[in-house]
Amino acid sequence: MKQDMVDRLKNDPDFLKLVRVRSRFAWTLTIVMLVIYFGFVLTIAFDPSILGTPLCDGLVTTVGIPVGIAVIISAFLLTGIYVRRANGEFDELTHRIKMKAKGEV
Amino acid sequence: MKPIIFLLLGSAGIFAGEAISGAVEKQPLNISAIIMFLIFVGATLAITYWAAKRTKTAKDFYTAGGGITGFQNGMAIAGDYMSAASFLGISALVYGKGYDGLIYSIGFLVGWPIILFMVAEQLRNLGKYTFADVASYRLRQMPIRTLAAFGSILTVVLYLIAQMVGAGKLIQLLFGLDYEIAVVLVGVLMILYVTFGGMLATTWVQIIKAFLLLSGATFMAIAVMAHYNFNFESLFATAVQMKDVSIMAPGKLVSDPISALSLGIALMFGTAGLPHILMRFFTVSDAKEARKSVFYATGFIGYFYILTFIIGFGAIVMVFQNPQYLDLAKQAVDGGYPILGGDNMAAIHLSHAVGGDFFLGFISAVAFATILAVVSGLTLAGASAISHDLYASVIKKGKTDGLMEMKVSKIATVILGIVAIFLGIIFEDQNIAFMVGLAFAIAASANFPILFLSMYWSKLTTRGALFGGSLGLLTAAVLVVLGPTVWVDVMGNAQAIFPYKYPALFSVSAAFIGIWFFSITDSSDEAAKEREAFEAQYIRAQTGIGAEGATEH
């Protein structure tokens, strides 16, 4: 990439928007995943009995079973949420930036 | 039959699930399994022949021509992750410890969303064949490529040893072949796939195997649930009657907060630093397909872990205490309900319990296919580090053509294959449970920090990456050796010098702090240029501008 193109693109409003919005979105989702996972393992580390409690009296299924499955599903959902927005909104912005870059080559 | 010591459930720690080890007894020849396996080998060799005709350039060889779709790549990534040892090991862990098996598998899954949010598309936009392309993008090629290649090869070889030893033992158990013959067979087939078919064959072998494994596991889980009218409570209630109520709650797997944090960091950042996984992101055409790959991979892997959880409980109710699978000789000595072949055979016995001899043969053949596919992917990643990073970029300083590079890669594959066979035989009776853990620790502490900071931190310099990355690698290796898994379990000392099994919390911190410190104190002219080059790299990483040109060689 030529330096003049770098200088133009780095101040391009679309580029700045893409980077700002996507970074914030990616970091938010990352933090959500970290909080869910480390919340889960640290709960186990500090007090394993919480997840070992039966869902209700008389059942053998413990709280830990739906919680564990929910952590797995949350990982899948978070990737889905990201991909949906990135393949739509972010890719449109990227496409616009690319078109501008091409026009200026 | 001799007692079978699988370290999985011993003190060797969480990663042992990835490494089948200990002494195993050869089984009688399993004819239906061998026939189904031969069909698989025939089909994959046909794919290799087809792929060989389409593998003409270095780009074909390393990245399957870059034309793999997001869905296919997601399946292949999931395949890389669902090794035979993780299928048998995780279901065995659930079978033995119940809920702890679920905690274990969750740790392996949660790295994927982070890879998607932070590295997947940037990697695709910046790299060509290996993750070292990205790490060395604006830094000095020689030192950074060398360090990245060293980290890759070390990770690959450690992982490969664990897989080869597991393969030999498993094949002995399932097919009744000699250990050495099994290891040589795996090595030879892997060399054939990779040298002739390159990434295209490796990817399709992985996709087919992932499909077979997911189908087989789905059938087993459904068969188990059908027995209980698809009611989890009655499955769990029966399992608790067979064992005891402790299987429904967290056990000893995660004991203290430091270990919990350290393990989580190793699994998350380790996954994001595994060269054979990172390499798969270069097989898709663009950032969009790279993203989709992770989405599908996360789905398949998560689904697979839920299946193994059901399979583990299914084995408790249908295999445990079932006289058909009981190892009577061992029971006479030790009491309890030991099953034939040890706990790692729980899923295999369950396949017989739900589907008879035919389905047992199918699952055994799939387990073998799984090993082949995983070692092929590992070997290709190792060979790429040797040919693309060390040969083409460091030794020839970029002055070589693609054909020569591909030739070196094929030679490297053959050498790696032979080395893997030898190491597999040498380590047969060694305690190798720490190796996958060490591979993850190195990937998390050396590969990942350099990769991550090269993409996000403008002030990174060659000196910082080199010193910090090496520091992370050394810290990880030293702490694993001084920790309980090697110092006590392998070397037989009474007390570990470093008390934690998982060093990642410390070694990853050391790497990040080291990279930070040696970068900000670097006032050389080179460093100034490297910082200046960040802008152009950042624009390309974010948008992919320039990426197309670079991949069309």
Helix and strand topology:
The complex is a heterodimer of chains A (105) and B (553).
Chain A: H1 3-10, H2 13-46, H3 49-52, H4 64-104
Chain B: H1 31-54, H2 58-63, H3 70-81, H4 84-97, H5 99-109, H6 111-126, H7 131-135, H8 141-175, H9 179-227, H10 232-242, H11 257-271, H12 275-278, H13 287-318, H14 328-334, H15 346-395, H16 402-426, H17 434-456, H18 462-482, H19 484-488, H20 504-520, H21 525-532, H22 534-543, H23 547-551
Question: Mind explaining what this structure looks like?
Answer:
The complex is a heterodimer of chains A (105) and B (553). Chain A is mainly alpha-helical and 105 residues long. Chain A has one domain (2-102). Helix content of chain A is 83%, strand content 0%. Chain A is built from four helices and no strands. The radius of gyration of chain A is 22 Å and the shape is elongated. Chain B is an all-alpha fold and 553 residues long. Chain B has 23 helices and no strands.
